[in-house]
Structures are given as C-alpha cells and as structure tokens.
Amino acid sequence: MLQDRDSLGSGPVLIGIGSNLASARYGVPLSVATAALAALSSRGLPAVRRSRWYVSAPLPAADQPDFINGVAEIETTVPPATLMDVLHEIETEFGRQRSVANAARVLDLDLLAMGDRIRKDHPTLPHPRLHLRAFVLHPLIEVAPDWRHPVLGRTAVALLDLLPPGQRISLLAES
C-alpha cells in the first residue's frame, strides 16, 4: 500500500498559477498572474524560476474566458498545509470567490508538487490532476524539466506525450 511520504522528499516546490477573470485592482488576467508572483514573494515565497505564460481553454470545456497559466518554482521549507493556507489567502486577497468547481476565477494557485513528496491527505501531493492537464505540464517542463511524478514515475515530458489530443494551449506572445 502506498504510504504518505510527507516528511521525506527533495526537489522543487511547484506552484500552478492561473487566471481567467480580470481584477479591479490588477487588471487583465496576465497582470493578475504576474501580481500573484509578487504576492508570493512578499510572503517569503520567492520564485526561483517561472515559466512563460500560456493561454489555454478551460478544462473541462466551459463557456468562460480562456485562462492565462504558468508554473513557478518557489523556495520554502513550510509544511504543505501551511503553504496551501498561504495560497488560499492570496487567492482571497485577489478577489477569488469559491462557488462551483471549475468556475471562472480571478486567481487560482495550485500546489502542484513538493519535490517527490507523496501525500494522500489535504493537500494531496502531487496535485491529483496535474498529469492530465496540458496547461500544467507545458509550463512545468520549462521550470523543472527533470521533475518526475513520484507516483507515476514519469517525467512531465512523458506525461505530456500521454495526453489525448484536444487540450487547446498556446504560448502567450508577450511572455
């Protein structure tokens, strides 16, 4: 049986950043996503690397605006649950309102992975759907090309190759 390895683990701490609604304070989704990086840094979670920004269709498909997505590697030694609390605080400060699953949102910060840690409780590590999402895998490859999914044993490149076609994603020209 797979055991939690919360106290073990090494490798990058990866945060997914997404936005598909404008903010009164920060403006368009690209500006929101960029401001989220600054918010992380102001809380002692500086990005040591970040991907370029991507434009992706909502997943699952929905009648809402496209997302701006990216991935940042941050430096931290805080426990996963504490980190999730900080991510949720930032989302709330940016105006995120939680309603129904997969709703349009000003800001979405996902704890994707903490190196090779495996956790079954909250927060689940690695993120339980990261291997199914092109909008996560493309930018993750830029930030941590050698990262290997600790449960599936595959690199992000290999996971991307396994995705079925049809997830619309493109590199944002200004990134």
Question: What's the domain count?
Answer: 1
Q: Averaging pLDDT over every residue, what do you get?
A: 89
The helix count comes to 4
Q: Percent of residues in helical segments?
A: 25-40%
Total number of beta strands: 6
In angstroms, what is the radius of gyration?
15 Å
Which structural category do the helix and sheet elements fall into? alpha+beta
Shape: globular
Your description of this structure?
The chain is α+β, with helices and mostly antiparallel strands. The chain has a single domain (13-167), classed as 7,8-Dihydro-6-hydroxymethylpterin-pyrophosphokinase HPPK (Alpha-Beta Plaits, 2-Layer Sandwich). The chain has four helices and six strands; from the N terminus they run βαβββαβααβ. α3 runs antiparallel to α4 (156-162).
List the helices and strands and how they pair.
Blueprint: E1 13-19, H1 29-42, E2 47-50, E3 54-56, E4 67-74, H2 80-93, E5 108-114, H3 134-143, H4 156-162, E6 169-171
Antiparallel strand pairs: 1-4, 1-5, 2-4, 3-4, 3-6
Helix pairs in contact: 3-4
Structure in a nutshell:
The chain is of the alpha+beta class and 175 residues long. 26% of the residues lie in helices and 18% in strands.
Label this structure with key terms.
Alpha-Beta Plaits; six-stranded antiparallel β-sheet; 6 strands; 4 helices; 175 residues; disordered N terminus; alpha+beta
